[in-house]
Structures are given as structure tokens and as C-alpha cells.
Write a structure and sequence with these properties.
Layout (H helix, E strand, L loop, with lengths): L27 H13 L3 H9 L24
Helix pairs in contact: 1-2
Length: about 80
């Protein structure tokens, strides 16, 4: 907690999603894959590929690895 894992979009009216909400900065599938991999000690690439049909190598995100942007997502 307490950190932004992407470029901060800002709170200007033009940066808000649908003019009212903070714009998403991380795809949820990457977040889910990273949380599952880190929770169960699994290979993040394999989790992302199995759950969502992709990994980091396809240019579409899926940051499910143990490292990278979402490394250290969970703490004991």
C-alpha cells in the first residue's frame, strides 16, 4: 500500500474516468495473477497464461510474475 504502480494520471477533469473517477493505472488481470502467484508461491507467468491466456511476453500486460512492477504486492 501507499504507492502508485504506474504513471499518475492526475485528478484534472480531463484525466478522470467518465469525468468522475480516478482512471485505472493497472489491468486487473495482472493484479489478480500477481496476487495468486505470490499467495500460493506459483510461477507468475504460468498463472497469467493459465488464467488469462497471456503473460508479459505478448505486450498486453499480465504482470503476474514474482518480480516486476507488482513484485512484493503481498506482505505477511
Amino acid at each position: 500500500g501507499g504507492r502508485v504502480l504506474a504513471d499518475w494520471p492526475g485528478l484534472a477533469q480531463g484525466s478522470l474516468y467518465q469525468g468522475r473517477d480516478l482512471a485505472p493505472t493497472t489491468e486487473l488481470d495482472g493484479l489478480i495473477a500477481a496476487a495468486a502467484a505470490q499467495s500460493f508461491g506459483l510461477d507468475g507467468e504460468r498463472v497469467a497464461r493459465t488464467l488469462f491466456g497471456r503473460g508479459r511476453g505478448d505486450g498486453r500486460g499480465g504482470e503476474g510474475g514474482q518480480g516486476g512492477m507488482l513484485g512484493g504486492l503481498l506482505r505477511a
